[in-house]
Amino acid sequence: MAKIIGKSLPNIPWEEKPQGCTTPVWRYSQNPIIPRNAIPTSNSVFNSAAVAYKGKFAGVFRCDNKAVEMNIHAGFSDDGINWKINHEPIQFEGDPEITKLQYRYDARVCEVEGKYYVVWCNGYHGPTIGLGWTEDFKTFHQLENCFLPYNRNGVLFPRKINGEYLMLSRPSDTGHTAFGDIFISRSKDLVYWGKHRHVFGTAGGWQSTKVGAGPTPIETDEGWLMIYHGVITTCNGYVYRFGAALLDLDEPWKVITRGDFYLLGPETLYELAGDVPGVTFPCAALTDADTGRIAIYYGCADTVTGLCFTTVDEVLNYIKAHPMT
In this structure, is residue 36 part of a structural domain? Predict the structure, then answer.
């Protein structure tokens, strides 16, 4: 049995696997957990991140307003399911050149050495990777953008590796990018990023158009478990699903195993109908090291937020049984 390397989270949101379920990931029966009108100004709330915080939960949420302008808001929850999202967007402290708002979306959050780092797609003469930190989800400090435009899906690792911070990203272009591979970059100070390495690119079927990292990678005794999204171009447009890969612990640009089959894709009404139909987009994963449980937060049809569940053994066994060859 695989083991998650991390903290205990006895109050992780959880629902047992339904009887007769044959898939490695199962949806929360009360989905969606966050509706599109969760705050007075929101058109949609999706592609958001949650973390354990002081015995409860906190997060950063993508809330497109009724002008369909993209921004991120902080939120809190006692149980990881019922959320209170701040009505006003996050106001970052930092250099006005960087903090000036063009747009912000698709945040990820992870704790590294006692600080909670927020990574998002930031608008700075095109999409790039914004980076900031907070200690209380009330005051947020913004650092320099990590990369030149154009880039998306920045995901920070939850600890340093060989004395360096590591971040996954997907170089792209200014539009609705019809391509994209996953790269990894390293930094000693969270300001200057380099040593860029290619992790993997597109493959057949559900991940044939582009791929991008999802939640913060999960450390296990077998390697880094990376949940990622994959996109296929159909006659009706893009369809977003998500799968998993196992990366080397010390050199995570090296892939140990990559699943050929997806873990979850659009099937329910709230995943198939919305502002962008046919999207399941994972941005956060809570884990409990004691039980191996994983709770995944994902955007549904670019409109609402869903929750689904699995375990480290379910995912690893599945991608090993159905590896990419």
Answer: yes
Radius of gyration of the chain (CA): 18
- Chunked into runs of 10 residues, the chain (325 residues) has average pLDDT values of 97 97 97 98 98 98 98 98 98 97 98 97 97 98 98 98 98 92 98 98 97 98 98 97 98 98 98 98 98 99 98 98 95
16 within some domain: no
In a domain, 1, yes or no: no
For the chain, the domain total comes to 1
Domain that holds residue 245: 26-321
- Using CA atoms of 74, 76, 82, 88 in order, give the dihedral in degrees to the nearest 10: -30
pTM of the model: 0.98
242, 282 in Cβ contact below 8 A?
yes
> Would you list the DSSP string of 112-147?
ETTEEEEEEEEESSSEEEEEEEESSSSSEEE---SS
Strand partners, 116: 111, 134
- For 15, 46, 218, 306, 310, the CA distances from 30, given in Å and listed in that order, are 10, 16, 25, 9, 16
Distance CA 141, CA 131 (A): 9
Cis peptide before 40 (omega within 30 of 0): no
CATH of the domain at 208: 2.115.10.20
d(CA 116, CA 253): 24
How much is the pLDDT for 140? 98
Q: Are strands 140-142 and 92-93 parallel, antiparallel or unpaired?
A: parallel
